[in-house]
Design a protein that fits this description.
With 221 residues, the protein is α/β, with parallel strands linked by helices. Helices cover 35% and strands 28% of the residues. The chain has a single domain, classed as 3-Layer(aba) Sandwich (Rossmann fold), CATH 3.40.50. The protein has a 6-stranded mixed β-sheet, sandwiched between helices.
Length: 221
């Protein structure tokens, strides 16, 4: 499903080079649940962005379903992001002027999914995350945990095969955090979505099948 081969990422700031990733090789099987841990600045989010086709490696190869996406141009990367990958972020990134249903529908609109199919899929996703009664509520009318559940539903809108979560519990309390992680685990096991979670919270990380520790751009355990 996911195969990284000697991936390096170097950012240039003036005359200074920052090596965010340093020869990362990693295989993730279809349907796996993987957590990525390590100190701030270790390269976790950079790695997630490269797997998610938000960023491209300086060198090395990134294979998704057998395709080397590191060679794709912007148009090809956009198509991969829209149809194969779902994203969950710490900050939720819900559009404040859209209600829960409209936020979830948005990726399907971009993918030109017919309206009736969009509505059916959205209602099913709202049911899956336990928010059927909140479909008309706007982000500022929802708790942090509810907003994150809307964000999770949105990330699943186009039936991605890979779900990438960057600190998905960072903005919510520990009790709600446990519920969010259990929801992700359920989605992983029932819908066979490959799940990669970046987290500082070891309690969250330990829910995964595998825990990868990254330091200074390298996998150390």
């Amino acid at each position: 499903m996911i195969d990284l081969r000697n991936v390096t990422k170097i950012y240039k700031m003036g005359e200074t080079e920052i090596r965010a990733l340093n020869g990362i090789s990693l295989k993730v099987e279809k349907g796996a649940f993987l957590s990525l841990v390590g100190p701030s600045g270790s390269g976790k989010s950079t790695l997630l962005n490269i797997i998610g086709c938000i960023d491209t490696p300086t060198s090395g190869e990134v294979h998704l379903d057998g395709e080397d996406v590191s060679k794709l141009k912007d148009r090809g990367l956009t198509k991969i992001r829209l149809h194969k990958i779902g994203f969950i972020f710490q900050q939720f990134y819900l559009i404040p002027t859209l209600n829960a249903m409209e936020n979830i529908e948005l990726p399907m609109k971009e993918a030109k999914v017919p309206r009736e199919e969009r509505r059916k899929r959205t209602r099913q996703l709202l049911e899956n995350v336990g928010l059927t009664q909140r479909e008309k509520h706007y982000p500022n009318q929802l708790s942090g945990g509810e907003q994150q559940r809307v964000a999770i539903a949105r990330s699943l809108a186009n039936k991605p095969s890979v779900l990438l979560a960057d600190e998905p519990t960072g903005e919510i309390d520990s009790e709600t955090s446990e519920k969010i992680v259990n929801l992700l685990r359920k989605l992983n096991s029932e819908e066979k979505v490959t799940l990669l979670v970046v987290t500082h919270d070891l309690k969250v990380a330990k829910h995964a099948d595998r825990m990868i520790t990254i330091e200074d751009g390298k996998i150390v355990s």
